[in-house]
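ok here's Sulfotransferase domain-containing protein:
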Amino acid sequence: ANAYGSFFDHVPSMQTYIDTKCSDRALVVYYEDLKLNHDEGIATLAKFLGVPLSPEKLQVVRDMTTFSAMSGGTVGKLSTILCRKGVSGDWVNSQLSAEQWSLLDQAFEEKLGNCKIAQPLRAWMVAPPNEGNTVA
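and the structure:
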């Protein structure tokens, strides 16, 4: 847990809320997917919202949603505290021991194993393959 509460509580509560209150009005966006294909993520969001997306508008949204724009505080007051490194895969720099990774995997299965919106996180459920792996 942290100042915002437990991730293991938040994710299933959001899944329940989506399933019971707004399944047709919710879109879950994953940061890693946006990093892989920023334009596709923007287009998916525009389509979900029913907003036309011209090439010019795509460029403006792309520029405003880059890590440098978001972390520079030009987008909103909270952006500087919510942005860390702007990279995917930084989990390889974790200082967790093999035992701690195992405990984390067990907690994931117990609390998020059946949670649909948590399933994309499975790609990061394996301990880093080698000590010293880093992501710049």
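+1. Helices lie at 7-21, 31-36, 38-49, 55-64, 67-71, 79-82, 98-112.
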